[in-house]
Amino acid sequence: MTRSIDVAVVAGDGIGPEVTAEGLKVLDAVLAGSGTTVRTTPFDLGAARWHRTGETLPDADLEAIRGHDAILLGAVGDPGVPSGVLERGLLLKLRFALDHYVNLRPSRLFPGVATPLAAPGEVDFVVVREGTEGPYVGNGGAIRVGTPHEVANEVSVNTAFGVERVVRDAFARATARPRKQLTLVHKHNVLVHAGHLWRRTVEAVGADFPDVTVDYVHVDAAMIYLVTNPSRFDVIVTDNLFGDIVTDLAAAITGGIGLAASGNVNPDRTTPSMFEPVHGSAPDIAGQGKADPTAAVLSVALMLEHLGLADEARRIETAVAADLAARGTAVRSTAEVGDALAAAV
Ligand SMILES: NC(=O)C1=CN([C@@H]2O[C@H](COP(=O)(O)OP(=O)(O)OC[C@H]3O[C@@H](n4cnc5c(N)ncnc54)[C@H](O)[C@@H]3O)[C@@H](O)[C@H]2O)C=CC1
Ligand SMILES: CC(C)CC(=O)C(=O)O
Ligand SMILES: [Mg+2]
Hints:
The protein is 41% helix and 21% strand. It is of the alpha/beta class.
């Protein structure tokens, strides 16, 4: 029986459209002849739309996106748009409105990939970053702006409901992995209110997962271990801000930000989940055909896995692994990498 999947595409800004084009190329190639067809709908959202109309994510677009099976996003953010307008008004609005409470960010050091680490060992962990709360909710404000007496607050919101559901998801992932180990990363020695909620929640939920070994690392020390002993991590669960920071370092130690994929997942499947590279719009290299599209391609694999197309996801990962192993020091354009991966799947 033929199956059809409907993907909303928000290519966005900077290198977003460049890497997304390669992701879609590989998506088409991997589904060719598979019995699954894909229909993609591009959404004109990002800096160009904002410049033209002043809009970031109007309700009509959000509702149209909601009707798809999944979303593929490139990146948003542009030097010509005030910082935060697109990041909050488009990207975070999508994550919050669609209740993407699990921000899934796998980190794996593929064979043959250069790492800045002296002794990496085997690196294969996943960060389960909370996606709808923390300091990113916009619970803040400023007074006396621009004066020497300015006061600016950005309050981190952590609800028992929100922490419990993401912690439970992280435990479920840990229990399904061979090592069955979960590390809570936080800063409960200082952030005692939020930190203790996270700690108590991990303790309580852990009782339902007796086969999972649990430990705790303060976020500052986690930065040490990610560099000195990343093999110690299997599943990391953490809040929205810490997870954002941890996963850029995780990318850097596993071959660079151009390889790091992510999923903004609604595990309850009441809304379409959204898949995107961990990186941003990289205005410093935009338009030069230099961006590595591998992160976007691996994000397509995460999307296929989420949609129940595990074989196709594995084929993409296998193609990426082979491509990375063969890369050496050759410099290839964005399209050359995409073409090679599309041919390989
Ligand atoms: N998910 C999203 O849409 C995100 C958007 N942003 C936005 O992107 C803009 C730029 O932010 P930055 O802090 O510079 O982060 P960035 O991730 O865009 O770039 C950081 C560094 O990584 C490099 N880089 C990024 N992606 C690459 C790729 N695929 N291949 C090779 N090199 C790559 C860039 O050239 C730059 O040197 C800002 O407007 C920011 O708010 C940042 C992070 C995530
Ligand atoms: C631009 C931020 C809202 C997002 C970000 O840096 C991320 O999700 O990694
Ligand atoms: Mg980030």
